[in-house]
Amino acid sequence: MVGAAPSSNTSVTITTYIIPIKITITNRNGTKTSFDPAHVLSNGNTVTQNTLTSPLFDSTTTYTLAGTNVGKTQYIDAYQRANFWGTVSTHTNSHLLLSPTVLAEQTLSPSRTYGKTGSPFGFTAALVDINWFDSQVPALISKFGIQPNQFPIFLLYDTYLTQGGGCCIGGYHSSEGSVSNPQSYSEATYVDHVGAFSQDVSALSHEIGEWADDPLTVNYNGNNTPCGILENGDPLEGEPNYGGFPYVLHNFTYNLQDLVFLPYFGAPTSTSVHGWLSFQHNSSLSVCSNGS
Questions:
Q1: Which pLDDT band, with edges at 50, 70 and 90, does 228 fall under?
Q2: DSSP type of residue 163
Q3: Predicted TM-score (pTM) of this structure
Q4: Residue 219 clears pLDDT 70, i.e. is over it
Q5: Which member of 5, 19, 49, 152 has the lowest number of beta carbons within 10 Å of its beta carbon?
């Protein structure tokens, strides 16, 4: 897992790089359509700015769970503190924080083989093959000189990844490099259509949460549990609003995904706050009930 053991009572800050990726699709008639995180939203912010000021990076929201204050902090830190509340409640300096810097926007232009436009949720989106996108990642990481103790996030706008022609993937996290020196990273799309899959930062909250608990994934013998790999977002993306819950910050309503706690995977209920199985207390859950 990322950061220090909760019992060490230590706050860890991870240098995080947000890399906006403009996707340009060449249509069959030769015209081009771009999906750009520089797009200005209804609140006057660009997609990138709105991501940066979300509860994922802003530390001014207080998270109180059934009367228990787990911290005034970033969303994933609040989740992880609640995840280990059995220890954190008496080791209150335990934190996992992200320090974000936005890097220069990059443009990727997949060929028709790997990219097209479509309307899987009733609006026009870019559809890009995940394996093609992932093959671009090493060069981007190298270009910016990002190091293994740093966390790059590739931010897309109204773009879904596809696999084997099937849609839709709102984001993913993975790792590359050597077993002894692996580099973790994540990709997520920001969708500005109300009620759609991956609305605003919901996909990114999902992926950062999973990165925090299993940063190297199955590529390097990832964290396995009685119900499979430790993916704490996947079991809840089938819930209403794709598992997202509203949080109002800076006069904007963000959707942040619920994430399961370790007791969902079979850990003792004394591990998490109130013995809950998820951050938003999804009472319908039982151990491994929705898979991994």
A1: confident
A2: E
A3: 0.96
A4: no
A5: 5
